[in-house]
Every structure is written in structure tokens, then in C-alpha cells.
Amino acid sequence: MFMTLMAMGALLIGLILGYALMQMGAKKKFDYLELEAKAKANAIAHEADRLLQDARTEIKRQEIEQEKEYARRYEALERRKRDAIRKGREHDAAHEKLQQTQQHLEARLAHLDTLEAEKQATIHEAIRAMENVGSITAEEARTYILNRVEEQSRNEIAAVVRKQEKIARDEAKRNANFILAQATTRYAGEFAGERLINVVNLPSDDHKGRIIGKEGRNIKSLEQLLGVDIIVDETPGVIVVSNFNLFRRAIATRVIEILVEDGRIHPGRIEEVHARVQEEFEQKIYEEGENVVIDLGLFPMHEELIKLIGRLKYRASYGQNALGHTLEVARLARVMAAEMGGDEKLALRAGLLHDIGKALTQDFGGSHVDLGVEVCQRYNEHPTVINAILAHHGHADPDGVESAAVCAADALSAARPGARREVLESFTKRVRDIEEIALAETGVVRAYAINAGREIRVFVDAGTVDDVQAGYLSHTLAKRIEDQVQYPGEIKVNVIRETRAIDYAR
Questions:
Q1: Contact yes or no for 413/332 (Cβ under 8 A)
Q2: How far is Cα 404 from Cα 124, in angstroms, rounded to an integer?
Q3: CATH number at residue 316
Q4: 17 exposed, middle or buried (CB, 10 Å; 0-12, 13-18, 19+)?
Q5: What is the reported pLDDT for 468?
Q6: 410: which residues sit within 8 A by CB, 6+ positions away?
Q7: Is the pLDDT of residue 174 over 90?
Q8: What is the mean pLDDT of residues 181-192?
């Protein structure tokens, strides 16, 4: 029993202690929650204060902006007010000036009316005086005055007409001269550009310095080897290759283009590229000739003749491209031969080869007729072809319809308006004659006429011609050119003697 009571007492004490502990825990939790609530309340109060302060700041900023906007609008209104006042004053001044002008005009009109009345009175008085003095009526006096006025007016009108006619003639002459000058300038520019120069485009102006080289050695090597005049001026991105020889100029242009693309420009490289380009052009002119022969259906033909046909593309006669002229003659001759019952194909062949000698004149000189006959005989061309070559310049009579057709076609092609230009041919002949005079001298290796024929560069063999003989040679050539060639101005003879030593390191 006692044990039971003790157990119950212990249980009661445990319950009391548990309750007390629970009360203590609850009080601590309440205190914590109270502290947390106070902290949140303080945070909310601080946030509310901050928001209130931000709101006050924003309101203040808006008030400042509104004050500025009001000030700006007020200033604009004041400015408009001042402008309106100024314009009003200007309007008042203009109105006052207008009134003054109107009053002045009214005074002038009144004065004119007075003068008109005085004039009429004077006229009537003069008429009465004439009637009294000359015993003529007013009608007769009026007629007399009108006749005099008409006569004087006619003289004045005639003078005015003559003056206007003179002005019109002078103006028409000026306009005509201006139109001719403009047309001549445009045509001459295209003609000179097409016939005498090639333009090489450069990636940048830095390449001009490379082409010139140190102390000009690259451009000197180019001009010496290529036989052309290279013009490097201030025109951006281009250089100009100038020479009367189309073939030489085309080779020079290609050499410079390759050097510019490659970037390596020096005398050794220039000689290497020049040799390669020459080989390429030899193959190219053969392909040109072959294409022409294939298009016209004239196979078989000797390969040397085919090469010469391709070379005609780089030859001009009186400003007319030799290959273009040859094809024109060939096609005209074929049509005429067909109409006259001749051999079309033979006439076409004779027309194609009638000027073949022109492909050789720049290298060998002499008459293109003689050269053409010689080369065609060497390669066993048809007798009619040879007769056409002789007949088209009157060296023989045509022996058949085909030769006659070639002669007629050649005359038509050469004589049509704009086909040929005599001035260019005389210029190229003069330049060619100058080169031939130099090449005829002993020891001369190469000779190039440059600078539009105003200078000739003569390269001599250093082993044959010494320095003293070089000076004497320049004097001799200048004298021979004076005696044998007609030219304007003067021609500079430049004899160049160069010594080279070559060896190989192995």
C-alpha cells in the first residue's frame, strides 16, 4: 500500500514538474514571438519612413521640374511676345513706307499728267505754227510727221536687226566651236588611249614605289627590256604603258601585271617574267590565228601563216586594226566572188592573206606586198592568193574574179568613213624609221623610240662600242635622223652602254 502511495506521489510530482516545464517553455516561446513581432514592427516602421522620404523626394523633384517647365514656357511666351512686338513695329514701318511710296507715285502720276497736258498743248501750238508758216493743214503735217517717224523707225529697226544678227552669228560660231572642241576632245582621248597607251591598275599606290625601285633601277630595267615608256604620275591606282607598237605594248602590260600580282619586282625577276610572257604571247597569237582559220573554214594552212594571222591583231594600218581589216576584206571578197560566179573559198583565202606581209614589216621593214608574196610563195599558197597580194596595191593586174573581188573589198574596207587615220600611220612610220636608223649602226643591240617619238634609247654591245665610240655614235645618229626623217621639235638620242659580269655559285 505504501509503495502504491509513493508511486502515485511520484507521478503527481512528475506531472507538476512537467506542467511547470511546459509553462516555462510556453513563456519563452511567447517572449521570442513577442521579440520577433517587435522586430518586424520596427522594420515595417523603418520601411514606411523610407518610402515616405522617397515620396517626399519625388514630390520635391516633380515640383522642381514643374517650376523649370513653367519657367521655360514663360520664357517662350516672353520671346513670342518680343517677336510679336518687333514684327508689329516692322509691319508699322513697312506700312508707313508703303504709304510714302504710294504718295510719291501719286505725285509722280500727277506730274506726268501735267507734262502730258503741256506736251499736247505744245503739239497743238506747233501744228498751228506750221500751218501758219508752211501753209499746210494739220492732216498734211500729221502725215509728214508720221512718214518721218516711220522712216526713222525703219532705220532703228534695221540697226537693231543687224546687231542681233551679228550677235546671233557670233553666238552660233562660239557654240559650234565649243561643240567641235568637246567632240574632238572626247574622240581624241578615246583614240589616243586606244591606240597609244595601256593602263595597268594597281592594288595600291605602294606598288608605284616598287615598280620604280631603288634609285629607279626597276623602271629602268622595265623600259630597257620591254622597249616601252612607263608613266608613273599622280593618278591614284594606275600606271600608263605607252608605245606605238601594239604587240610590244601588250607584252609590257602583261609583264607588269604579273609582277604586280607576284609582288617580287627586281631586274632579275623582270627578265624571267618577260621571257615567260614572250613564250605565252607566241602561243597566244598562234591560237588567235588558228581560231580565225577555223571560223572561216580555211584549213589546211601552214602553221607559220597561222601565226602571222594571229600577229595581225597587234598591228595597225592608218589607225585601222590589221586583223579587223583583213577579216572585213575576206568576207566582202567572198560575197562579191559568189555574186560574180567565182570561187568563194578561194576569194575568202586570198582576202585573209592579202595583207599578211604587214605582220612582218615591224621586224624586217620593207613593203608588206613583197614580204607577203615571199612568205606565201615559201609555203606554197595558191597562185590566185599571190596575185591578190600583188594586185590590191597595183603591182599586178587581177588574173581572175577572186583577185578582183579582193581588190574591190580592200578599197571598200579602207575607204569607208572612219576606217583609217592618216596622221597615226605617218607618226608610227616616223617612229619606226627612227628605230631602223639606229639598228643599222654597227654595235647596236636594241633601239626603242619612246616618249611619243621624242626620244630614242639605243643599247649597244659593250664589247664592241667603248665609251668614246658611244658618244660619237649618239652624234652620228642625231645627224642621220636630222637628214632622213621629218619631225616636229627635237629628238633626244640616248646611247646606253652596259657591262654585265655573270657567274654561278655551285
A1: yes
A2: 94
A3: 1.10.3210.10
A4: exposed
A5: 79
A6: 329, 351, 354, 392
A7: no
A8: 43
